[in-house]
Specification:
Blueprint lengths: L12 E6 L4 H12 L3 E7 L13 E4 L6 H11 L2 E4 L6 H12 L5 E4 L5 H14 L4 E8 L9 H16 L19 E3 L2 E7 L5 E9 L2 E9 L6 H10 L5 E4 L2 H4 L1
Parallel strand pairs: 1-2, 1-3, 3-4, 4-5, 5-11, 6-8
Antiparallel strand pairs: 6-9, 7-8, 9-10
Helix pairs in contact: 2-3, 4-5
The structure holds NADPH dihydro-nicotinamide-adenine-dinucleotide phosphate and the ligand O=C(O)C1=N[C@H](C(=O)O)C[C@H](O)C1.
The site of ligand LZUJQKHR has 9 residues, from α5.
Length: 255
């Protein structure tokens, strides 16, 4: 271990926040600031330049899908661990991140589509239920300033459900409907229909509706306040330095 890498374990972990003036960034700065074992050393937003976060041990990124890959590449190159909540992570992007990390064996990255503990459980419950129902649809609901649709959470849930259905040998979801208007039946992700609702007053909500003969099951999660994501973010910030490589989702941190 070099002198630069050595740290006094009694000193707070140095955290940089990217997207610090955004809805989530503001909340993350507040939560890190309130934690005795963590300190905010950089608040970086559009136009500030990433070098402001050079002194961070862990960077937290809540920016936009357009810029997050450049941010992450920079963090990994600098040897800085990263906790990422920004959406837009396709399998191809995740593979790219794994490639970057291969050249930096000590660096950890946690990417989670949703840091809400209840949301993580909702996704786990949905994956568990998936094998028992022939029908399934996802309805995600968010505030109207959200830039992307469907949500990262809905995409992740659909993929997990599709994997569980395939493992259980289930065929396609039955559906004889022909769209009279394009989009009426929502988007399709790995064979699972996903509907995105946007309305003022909402924060982040998702329902997974399962159906089989004579019964339905609805699994629902609601984030009414962005504070709901903070326990998961802080959990990841505390864990990431001891988890080299890529961790996708909070599941492994909650076990
Ligand atoms: N995983 C999870 O649990 C959650 C994930 N999210 C995701 O997090 C992301 C952010 O959400 P939210 O906070 O609502 O969005 P906001 O638009 O409120 O915040 C994003 C911030 O990032 C800034 N920004 C843009 N480019 C850069 C850059 N290159 N460097 C630094 N900052 C930059 C934006 O600045 P400007 O406005 O000037 O462009 C803005 O202040 C979204 O992808 C969202 O889906 C949200 C909630 C929970
Ligand atoms: O933009 C948001 O607000 C959220 N984004 C994430 C997503 O797309 O799943 C997580 C949560 O739903 C809030």
């Amino acid at each position: 271990m070099t002198d630069e890498q050595w740290r006094n374990p009694d000193e707070p972990v140095r955290v940089g926040v990217l997207g610090a003036r955004g809805r989530m960034g503001i909340e993350v700065c507040r939560a890190v600031d309130a934690a005795d074992d963590l300190e905010v050393v950089a608040m970086v937003d559009q136009g500030d330049g990433l070098s402001a976060a050079s002194d961070a041990e862990v960077v937290v990124d809540f920016t936009t899908p357009d810029v997050v890959m450049d941010n992450l590449r920079w963090c990994i190159d600098q040897g800085i661990n990263a906790v990422v909540g920004t959406t837009g992570f396709t399998e191809q992007r995740l593979e790219q991140v794994r490639g970057w990390l291969a050249g930096k064996p000590g660096v950890g990255v946690v990417i989670a589509p949703n840091f809400g503990i209840g949301a993580v459980l909702m996704m786990q419950f949905a994956a568990r239920a998936a094998r028992h129902f022939e029908s399934v649809e996802i309805i995600e609901q968010h505030h109207p300033r959200k830039l992307d649709a469907p949500s990262g959470t809905a995409t992740h849930t659909a993929r997990q459900i599709a994997r569980a259905r395939a493992e259980a040998g289930l065929g396609p979801v039955p559906d004889a409907t022909k769209d009279e208007v394009p989009g009426a039946r929502g988007a399709e992700i790995d064979g699972v229909r996903v509907h995105a609702v946007r309305a003022t007053g909402l924060v982040a909500h998702q329902e997974v509706l399962f159906g089989t003969t004579g019964e339905t099951l609805t699994i629902r999660h609601d984030s009414y306040d962005r504070a709901s994501f903070m326990p998961g973010v802080l959990l990841a910030v505390r864990a990431v330095r001891n988890r080299p490589g890529l961790t996708v989702g909070l599941d492994a941190l909650l076990d």
